[in-house]
From TrEMBL:
The keyword Membrane applies. Keywords: Membrane, Transmembrane, Transmembrane helix. PANTHER family: DOUBLE HIT, ISOFORM B (PTHR10845:SF192), REGULATOR OF G PROTEIN SIGNALING (PTHR10845). This is RGS domain-containing protein. It comes from the Eukaryota. InterPro entries: RGS, RGS_sf, RGS_subdomain_2. The chain crosses the membrane at residues 13-34, 46-65, 77-98, 157-180, 200-223, 235-255, 267-288. It comes from Basidiobolus ranarum.
């Protein structure tokens, strides 16, 4: 009873709600980060997702926390927190759109380039609908636009762009602060009744740019993209919620006829509702999926069916195409090429005569493509495995079985992570995946 003594009814509602929501944000985000090695989380960009949470917390805490003391709330806090929170959330969403577009199109390029030059054009034509064929595929990854500009799609580079956008936003807010009296800090802090005003124009304009220009641009890159993790679906939901909340906020804040409604449900609460739902899509549901883990999925996908798929050329081709959506193209290409190497070595008595030149060329091609430093198709292998293979190549101690340990790891990765998602997909949906 003591903690609530002297509180108004609105304080008893909004203060606990604000605290509870931030507790949910922090706890679920910690769980999200703890599951960073799970495929359900890995491709969602931990850093950009955390940026979304920080923006979410700033905006929702401001909009909920100021409600009980609306008449006495410091006005400069309104404009400065809004200048950071909402742009941070919107730019993080835009950055995640860009990352997803890059991951898919880069995987697409690797899948085509990884086929090698032998019969690639025929294979490409066979699996592409006739109306989609525009030109033969690029065989050299260096010629691909996404590969050549891959550094511009790293999380580190995107964070720099977000930092630049926030710096610009804060500079505009600082300029506004110089000329405003409604949001003044000195000589006295302006208090209360400062939810609207010309001072918010820079925030509205930049938010409108992110919502109606930047995000739609990145969405256009996702045309035809259908990832195996539901990331596109999640981001589209975030974008839709952002658009609806932005429009409703402007509408309710600007129209005098809606003032009666605002007394019950403030205009800013549309943003609060949208951000709460967004957090469920972006953090809570992926975390639940990651905690469920792949152990249950593996139990439903027995090894016998997995082996059968690997031995069936048609099924493996479909599985390889699915790996595009799973962002694990390297694994299927490595498995395919090492399997081809093993077939080439069947019946060879290389211990007496040494390896034929074509076998040595194939072994070195696989090493340079998948294992060597800065390999274009670098595998996600244990450090000890990579170190062992590189040492053997440095010592010129290579043979048909040099990749056996790596192949075992790759098979395990495919079985534990990619195959469970593959078996869930219908044959019809897989046929709609275009390369």
């Amino acid at each position: 009873m003591g903690i609530y003594e002297g509180w108004t009814t609105i304080q008893k509602v909004y203060y606990p709600l604000t605290i509870a929501w931030n507790f949910i944000l922090i706890s679920t985000t910690i769980l999200f980060i703890m599951q960073h090695n799970s495929p359900a989380i890995r491709y969602r960009s931990i850093t950009l997702s955390v940026f979304m949470v920080i923006g979410n917390s700033l905006v929702t805490t401001l909009y909920l926390g100021r409600e009980p003391t609306y008449d006495q709330f410091p006005c400069f806090v309104n404009i400065w927190v809004s200048s950071v929170g909402m742009p941070l959330w919107l730019t993080a969403v835009a950055g995640r759109f860009a990352r997803l577009a890059f991951l898919y199109h880069f995987s697409q390029a690797k899948l085509v380039a990884g086929q090698g030059s032998q019969n690639v054009n025929d294979h490409y034509i066979d699996i592409m609908p006739k109306e989609k064929i525009a030109s033969p595929p690029t065989l050299v990854l260096d010629q691909n636009w996404y590969y050549r500009h891959r550094e511009k799609f790293t999380t580190k580079y995107i964070v720099k762009l977000i930092s630049g956008a926030l710096a610009l936003q804060l500079a505009l807010t600082l300029l506004v602060q110089v000329f405003t009296t409604k949001f003044q800090i000195t000589p006295t802090i302006a208090l209360g009744h400062c939810l609207v005003g010309w001072e918010f124009i820079p925030i509205y304009l930049t938010s409108a740019f992110y919502v109606f220009v930047l995000c739609p641009l990145f969405i256009s890159w996702l045309r035809g993209v259908n990832d195996a993790y539901g990331i596109k679906r999640e981001l589209m939901a975030d974008f839709t919620l952002g658009v609806v909340a932005f429009l409703l906020y402007i509408l309710f804040a600007a129209l005098p006829i809606l003032k009666g409604v605002i007394r019950v449900f403030p205009a800013a609460h549309w943003s609060v509702v949208a951000l709460m739902i967004s957090h469920i899509f972006s953090i809570v549901l992926p975390t639940i999926d990651a905690i469920k883990g792949t152990d249950n999925q593996v139990s439903n996908s027995n090894m016998a069916s997995f082996e059968s798929m690997l031995e069936d050329p048609q099924q493996f081709e479909i599985f390889k195409r699915f790996s595009l959506r799973d962002f694990s193209v390297e694994n299927t290409l490595f498995y395919e090429q090492v399997s081809k190497l093993r077939m080439m070595c069947d019946g060879l008595e290389y211990e007496k005569e040494g390896l034929p030149m074509n076998i040595l060329v194939e072994i070195n091609m696989i090493y340079n493509k998948f294992i060597a430093r800065d390999a274009e198709f670098e595998l996600n292998l244990e450090a000890a495995t990579v170190r062992e293979i590189r040492q053997r190549f440095q010592a010129k101690d290579v043979g048909p079985h040099v990749f056996d340990r790596a192949l075992l790891e790759v098979r395990n990765l495919m079985f534990r992570y990619t195959y469970p998602r593959f078996v869930k997909m219908s044959q019809k949906s897989l046929q709609e995946t275009h390369i």
